[in-house]
Amino acid sequence: MRAVLSFSGGLDTLVAVRLLQEKYNAEVITVTVDVGQSPETLKMAERRARQMGVLRHIYVDARREFVEEYIFHSIRANGLYEGYPLSTALSRYPIALKLVDVARKVKADAIAHGCTGKGNDQFRFDTTIAIKAPELKIIAPIREMNLDRVQELEYARRKDIPLGPEKPYSIDENIWGRSIEGGVLEDPSKTPPQEIYVWTRPPEKTPAKPRVVEIGFENGIPKTLDGRRVRGLDLITKLNKIAGDHGVGRIELIEDRILGLKARENYEAPAATVLIQAHMALEQLVLTKQELVFKQLVEQRWSDLVYNGLWFDPLREDLDAFIDCTQKRVTGNVKVELSRGSSRVVARSSPYSLYDKKLVSFEKFGFDQREAASIIKFHGLQGKLAKRRKGSDG
Ligand code: ARG
Predict the structure, then answer these.
(1) Catalytic residue among 92, 124, 178, 329, which?
(2) Global pTM exceeds 0.70
């Protein structure tokens, strides 16, 4: 049997290689899909794959695709799950698609991944692979053998698996965010140690002087940074650095996983935090109240689908059709001030702005204010009816 394994080089995927070789009698082809993890992580994956004696190791660069086909959609949808910018979830779809491509090219019988049976990623991988390549078997060795971390470490030692000084955390990283779980973080009553943060500085180590960044959107997609046109990948990379230096983008939450478990999650997402905040600010300027209220419902559904592994459910595309329609007017500039760990919108403008200074100004009234009084007479009508009703105690 031939299996293509999604490989990060971390403990789960290392153990998965050996299990596939020994328990499943498989020849293993490891695939690392680049969605913006650090170059050191990518190099480590390649080195460890070779040490494990895999048949082949394949690197696939999916960064542009990830940005243009997933992150941009997520910005337009203000993609947040329980307050965190969807990042790991979003990356699993392009990764799964690349695994399918490779599996077909190398004529594999199965796609394997190192997910445990506790997390969300198994949902995202399994559903996508099953939809796109129903002919391929899905193998999740850690889940199938019901292994925990202690057992995995023990197995790794017994099987001469090349482990370095492993961090006590489970880390997932892509250009849109970094997630840190496990170890001491599993006690939500304890403050996370500083060592978990790599992209963001603690507030006391940020520059004293605030920094204002200006983001230019065209149809809901960020196109310029401080007035200069920059491609999506570069824009996000630059903004991660700028906002991270100002300590922006640390998120700590108790997250409801798909299985219902509550998990303590920590994230760093500097660019995502700033871009979604700026995008929302621009939408407030150009969309009507009715559109804004309805779009929030759509965004909630959209984010749930993406979080829950259902990117390829037709509803996601249906919702995107609505979102795309609203984004025709989401063009303009937003200034965000970054300072000591927080970001704040300070200015916005758009050729499609619905803001009318003449109407709202205190200086000079743009309409006859006396007209408001007659509308207000009806505004509380139902309250009056309820008060008059028999049995009302008011
Ligand atoms: N809880 C987050 C999510 O499901 C992050 C998961 C991180 N995954 C990992 N294998 N460390 O989106």
Answers:
(1) 92
(2) yes
